[in-house]
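Continuing the series of single-chain predictions for the mutant panel. This is the parent chain; the variants come on the following pages.
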Amino acid sequence: MQAPPIDLSLKAKPVGGCQPAYVRKLPVYGDERWLPLWRRGSHNGSMPNIQIKDVPEDTHAVLRQRASQSHQSLQEYLRSRLIAEAAQPTLDEVLARAGGRAGGSLPLADAVSALRFDRARH
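Parent structure:
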């Protein structure tokens, strides 16, 4: 059986059931495949990447072990840890958010005495 001829035109070809505006050819194992242009610049097309250099060997080993225990790759493990870290506000962020709220007109000393009185009752 003879292989079909290779189309060398620069026309856009459908990828995954959609018709992208611009595509480029990507040779893979002698086959011509099409890749949308938006996939050229980064790994997944839209998310930024972070690279950390000069990680100590023992730190790398501990992180690799923790990832393995979590049944994740090191990248998946570190990504989940970074997302969790970014989701948790720092103390400065909490204080800044609380300081931006409109407070009451009660002086601090009066608030403290009212709180102490209420606690003493119960």
